[in-house]
Write a structure and sequence with these properties.
The chain is built from 4 helices and 8 strands. It is an alpha+beta fold and 163 residues long.
Length: 163
C-alpha cells in the first residue's frame, strides 16, 4: 500500500510539469492557417490564428474572427523569413524521453510595409510548414521585394520546400 502512495506522489511533479509546459507553448499552425504573432496592427490581438488570403490583385488580407487587415503589395518594404526550433519537452515528459531527440520548427515571416498614411508598419506571421514557399513567392512576385533570410538554415528550408 505504501509503495502505491509513493508512486503517485512521485508522478505528481511530472504531471504538473507536463501541464505547465503544454499550456505555455501553443502548437504550430497547420494547413492553411496562419498566426498573426504580433506587430503594429492594434485591431488584432497578438497570437491570433486566421487565414492569409493572397488572391486579391492589390493586397494580402489577414482574416480572423476578431477582424481583418490588408497589406497592399505596393506598400511592402521588406520581407524576412526565419525559423525557430525547439525541443519537444512536453511530449518527452508525457510519453517518451526519445521525443527530446526530435525538433519542432516554427516558420515566421516578417512583413514591413507602409500604411495608407505612409507610416511604417510591421506584421509577423507564423506559417505552416508546407505553405512557406508559396506565400513568400507570391509576396515577392506581387511586391517586387526579395525575401531576406535570418539564417542559412532558413534559406535551405525555403529552397528545399520549393523543390
Amino acid at each position: 500500500m505504501k509503495a502505491r502512495t509513493f508512486t503517485r506522489r512521485a508522478a505528481l511533479p511530472f504531471a504538473a510539469a507536463f501541464l505547465l509546459t503544454a499550456g505555455s507553448a501553443p502548437a504550430a499552425v497547420r494547413g492553411d492557417e496562419v498566426m498573426y504573432v504580433g506587430g503594429t496592427m492594434q485591431q488584432i490581438p497578438d497570437k491570433t490564428e486566421g487565414k492569409l488570403v493572397l488572391d486579391a490583385p492589390t493586397g494580402a488580407e489577414f482574416n480572423c474572427k476578431k477582424g481583418k487587415f490588408t497589406i497592399l503589395y505596393k506598400s511592402i518594404t521588406s520581407l524576412e523569413y526565419g525559423q525557430k526550433s525547439g525541443r519537444r519537452v512536453g511530449v518527452a515528459i508525457a510519453i517518451s524521453p526519445i521525443a527530446l531527440l526530435s525538433k519542432k520548427r516554427k516558420h515566421f515571416l516578417s512583413v514591413g510595409f507602409a500604411d495608407e498614411n505612409g507610416a511604417k508598419q510591421g506584421a509577423v506571421f507564423e506559417l505552416s510548414k508546407g505553405r512557406t514557399h508559396s506565400v513568400i513567392t507570391t509576396l515577392e512576385t506581387r511586391s517586387g521585394k526579395k525575401v531576406e533570410f535570418e539564417s542559412e538554415d532558413a534559406r535551405k528550408h525555403y529552397e528545399k520546400e520549393g523543390n
